[in-house]
């Protein structure tokens, strides 16, 4: 049922209906939906932090493998910041070391020549369980709030947007009160719920403190670390050989060569 009042009686056929909203709608419909959405979003963030797994360490061989790959990438990208002698020494050392595959972290299954089963991997099981918990923590509150809005506030028109829109926005903004003669700028209660779901992330970022943000960042970085840990030794070895080839063919040009002449030429 629409809680609104038509201006000037019933609108004529084909004309755009001009409506006057009950001022109490702001306090009994618009404000409760907005407050519940914000509080639920904050609670969901804290629940996801609590159910997230802790930071897991990696074996020493895996850390050594990653450090040598990073060292080679840094040498290729920033080799111009060191002298030619230092670059050549690092180039010779890393090219031989990476090409030999000495520091590739090989699991027991890889050494035996068998293919590891991801279903029996405890790390994979923990990652799948963590993903399922996160999905449930997001799905259940949204389902409950959607039922609450649809049950108690169906058919309410809450506000009128101050800018014009095309008819393509009518279905998105007027869910539950689809009428042919209603201006597209009017927003229904259910549509306001969907807009809040999609647009409250900046509000959550403003309300969340730094500690929660840091914990959420750790949660988001866990899948990338797990993917790195699950990388096959053959893939890592191919990456190392590719970096060894890049280092071998890299041409060095030190940024300190003739720096005095370049500075004098620039400021002379």
Automatic annotation (TrEMBL):
Asked whether the UniProt record includes Transmembrane among its keywords, one would answer yes
Q: What domain of life does the UniProt record list for this protein's source?
A: Eukaryota
Q: Name one GO biological process term.
A: protein folding in endoplasmic reticulum
Cited InterPro entries: EMC3, EMC3/TMCO1
Subcellular location(s) per record: Endoplasmic reticulum membrane; Membrane
Kindly list the GO CC terms recorded for this protein. Answer: EMC complex
Please report the record's description of how this protein sits within the membrane. Answer: Multi-pass membrane protein
Q: What is its main location?
A: endoplasmic reticulum
Any matching Pfam family = EMC3_TMCO1
| KW Transmembrane (keyword) present | yes
> Per the database entry, which stretches of residues form a coiled coil?
none
What UniProt keywords apply to this chain's record, in alphabetical order?
Membrane, Transmembrane, Transmembrane helix
Question: Which residue spans traverse the membrane?
Answer: 27-47, 139-159, 186-207
Membership in a protein family: Belongs to the EMC3 family.
Q: What does this protein do?
A: The EMC seems to be required for efficient folding of proteins in the endoplasmic reticulum (ER).
Its protein name is ER membrane protein complex subunit 3
